[in-house]
Sequence to fold (110 residues):
Amino acid sequence: MLGRIVLISLFALFAAITSASAQTQDKYSVETPQGKPESHDGQSADLKSEVQRMRVILGQMQSNLAFVQNTTTPLKHQFELEIEMWQVALDEMDHRIRETGHSDSERPEK
Fold:
């Protein structure tokens, strides 16, 4: 009986997270104009804003994880792994942004 309750609770949580993820994806979808290519500074600013939005979503994922019961379940472990994966990816993007900023400042002006 307890197993059924846990299974139903996890299914409901997964459905809620999936729904929230779809809504968030629609909210943050970005259309790129087909005009002239952006400058490097514009691309850098766009990348920084994308990383900030992704960090907000990562925070939402972490807070959603709090609703999963404290017991170790495959679903909770999967959420933990996904959060960790996104954290690593965002840290790498931040590192690249910083490297690009340093390399741009070292280039002589034309």
